[in-house]
Amino acid sequence: MCLRHLLLCLLVGVIVIVNESEASWDEWWTYDGISGPAFWGLINPQWSLCSKGRRQSPINIEPDKLLFDRHLRPVLVDKHKVSGHLYNTGQFLVFRADREAKVRVNITGGPLAYHYQFEEIYIHYGMDNDHGSEHRINNYAFPAEIQVYGYNAELYHNMSEAQHKSQGLVAISLMVQLGETLNPELQIITSVFNKVIYRGDAAPVRHLSLKSLLPDTNGYMTYEGSTTHPGCWETAVWLILNKPIYVTARELYALRKLMQGPPTTPKAPLGNNSRPLQDLHYRTIRTNIDFRKRPDAKCPSMAQDMHYRANTWQDDGSLSHNVV
Ligand SMILES: *[C@@H]1O[C@H](CO)[C@@H](O)[C@H](O)[C@H]1NC(C)=O
Ligand SMILES: *[C@@H]1O[C@H](CO)[C@@H](O)[C@H](O)[C@H]1NC(C)=O
Ligand SMILES: *[C@@H]1O[C@H](CO)[C@@H](O)[C@H](O)[C@H]1NC(C)=O
Fold first, then answer.
1. Is 129 helix (H, G, I), strand (E, B) or coil?
2. What is the CA radius of gyration of the chain?
3. Residue 102 needs a FRET pair 20 to 30 A away by CA distance; which of 19, 205, 229, 294 works?
4. Ligand 1 atom with the shortest distance to the CA of 154
């Protein structure tokens, strides 16, 4: 029979299983097979953007399509330390800041019109060094990507409300490269990898400084996209920092020991948990990096020697451009 019928049968079978065990959808999706990325939009109607959306993430950043925008400000991140827990969800590792914590870490500036409150860090990584990051730069994948999510605290009460609402999220992407020395702040997280080997495991992480975790750079690329996990809500302003942070082979080895299942049925390793690249669909990727300062620059720029001037209202009211 045709593939479509086979698929339907599989999905029906799957839905029955899920209902019987009363598992929540959140626990159930995966990165491969019939619950993998190609099916996220089909298995739950609330996740339809995963298959229909046209402003999806991750994307491949093509350097020759970047647009320099001189009005982009530096990103500001509060230096306060936060405590929380690192969880193995069976899909990835996620650090969640404690809800009760009094200190809030604000993320502001950059392209952001609102104050965002830091909430979660997701870790995506590959089972080998040639794969892992979700975003790619010029088709290059890093061994891992750390995504820092915050929610719009001016408009919404919490992450779960903000994630599917307009301008709800900011996501800062840190590319992780293999190096000789480990980022010291990252060590606070990597030191508990051995306590979150199985799905459902959680380990406390204390006094993490988000600001110190970020690489030492003001340069970034930004575009409007989605969460890279279901429901793929198109509510995220993405910031991809232009320098990686470093881990050693030892941490990557520890990461690759983590499993998707509980101790009784560990199933496959947790790694290789990256959503495939999504189409850009004519979105603009802006950067605050002025490539013109480099002699070999080929990057197009908004800062051309040309500007628009509004006509006086006595004229026909249209805009005319003037080369200066
Ligand atoms: C974070 O932003 C909020 C406004 O959304 C402000 O009230 C608060 O003081 C800021 N926190 C810090 C630590 O700057
Ligand atoms: C988030 O905020 C909404 C709206 O105030 C509320 O209904 C919901 O229970 C909150 N969710 C969590 C997880 O706190
Ligand atoms: C991880 O993904 C890469 C690229 O798709 C693949 O070559 C590799 O075999 C995968 N490894 C495992 C252990 O699944």
1. coil
2. 21
3. 229
4. 5
| Nearest atom of ligand 2 to the alpha carbon of 157 | 2
Tokens coding 100: 């009760």
pTM: 0.86
Q: How far apart are CA 276 and CA 56, in angstroms?
A: 11
Is residue 303 helix, strand or coil?
A: coil
Tell the burial category of 251 from Cβ atoms under 10 Å away from its Cβ (0-12, 13-18, 19+). buried
Residue 107 has pLDDT above 80, yes or no: yes
- State which CATH number among 3.40.50.20, 3.40.190.170, 3.10.200.10, 2.40.50.140 fits the domain covering 55-287: 3.10.200.10
31, 125, 156, 198: which is the annotated catalytic residue? 156
- pLDDT of 31-76, one tens digit each? 998 899 999 999 999 999 999 999 999 999 999 899 999 999 999 9
